[in-house]
Write a structure and sequence with these properties.
Structural class: alpha+beta
């Protein structure tokens, strides 16, 4: 699943968040969109699991900051 997460004025330590994310899902990908202060996360975790993992990593994220994005998978790579 892909999620966009609003960072807000006091975003988290992204290195710590990335480390936690990879521990929970080694195939996860995370990047920051500097144009609109969002964190983009692609992961096998569902929304609740991702929310709890982010909170456990020390980011007091609110559920309203986490937005699932519709799949853009075309199936062409067999994934």
């Amino acid at each position: 699943m892909e999620f966009h997460i609003t960072l807000g004025p006091h975003g988290p330590d992204l290195a710590s968040i990335n480390q936690m994310l990879l521990a929970a899902d080694p195939a996860a990908v995370m990047d920051r969109d500097p144009s609109d202060a969002e964190l983009r996360v692609a992961t096998t975790l569902d929304g609740l699991s991702l929310l709890m993992a982010l909170r456990n990593a020390g980011w007091p994220i609110d559920a309203s900051q986490l937005r699932p994005v519709a799949s853009t998978c075309c199936g062409g790579c067999g994934g």
